[in-house]
Amino acid sequence: MIPSSLQHRSICRHARTLWLLVLVVSFPGVLHAGSHAPEISASPDLARAGYFHLRWALNDVDVDHYTVEEAADPDFTDPAVLYEGADRATVISGRSDGTFHFRVRASLADGSESGWSDTQTVEVAHHPLAQAIGLFILGGLVFLATTGLIVAGTSAGRRAAGGA
Q1: pLDDT value at position 17?
Q2: 105 has which bridge partners?
Q3: Are residues 88 and 122 both part of a single domain?
Q4: Cα–Cα distance for residue pair 132/26, rounded to 1 Å
Q5: pTM (2 decimals)?
Q6: Could you give the CA distance from residue 12 to residue 14 in angstroms, rounded to a whole number?
Q7: d(CA 102, CA 164)
């Protein structure tokens, strides 16, 4: 025979478990609101060409749309909404040199919102102008040398064909 105090504790434990199960099944957004945040990533973290990819996602929940914010400082004291919609990636281009901070939040289908993601920082540092001009000149020299070799080879081929 089981003592009544043990029976009472066992019944209470099962009742609490059953009550939590009813809450989770009835209100699935309760577990997700604020407890999960989307993940955000950038490729590359150092953008030398002036463009980069941002990707974000919140898996295992029904997301209605995402809000991506951008700020000049990592504390997001003055954020600007960069994107709001259902897409999970974007390409950002045309930025001047500097450091940019991004974060994302998901609005779930049940009307609740996730927490903000960790901050993703991207540094844009274009190639120096002197390097770009140097590479442009080098490309021009390679073009001229290739054109010269083609013309010289064509002339030599015609002379060889005419003398045969």
Answers
A1: 59
A2: 67
A3: yes
A4: 61
A5: 0.64
A6: 5
A7: 71
94 and 65 belong to one structural domain: yes
Condensed to tens digits (0 to 9), the pLDDT of residues 135-157 reads: 989 999 999 999 999 999 898 88
**CA 127 – CA 141 distance, rounded (Å):** 21
Confidence grade of residue 84 (pLDDT, cut at 50, 70, 90): very high
Residue 157 lies in a domain: no
Give the Cα separation of 61 and 39 in Å (integer). Answer: 13
Joined together, the tokens standing for residue 48 give 């030398």
Nearest to 70 by CA among 105, 31, 35, 103: 103
> CA of 115: how far to CAs of 25, 50, 71, in Å?
21, 30, 17
For the chain, the domain total comes to: 2
CA–CA gap between residue 52 and residue 90 (Å, rounded) = 9
| Contacts (Cβ under 8 Å, ≥6 apart) of 24 | 30, 31
Residue ranges making up the domain that contains 77 = 33-127
Contact 102, 144 (CB under 8 A): no
Nearest alpha-carbon partner for 36 in 128, 119, 117: 117
Task: For strands 63-71 and 51-57, give the pairing.
Answer: unpaired
Structure-token match 């025979």, residue found: 1
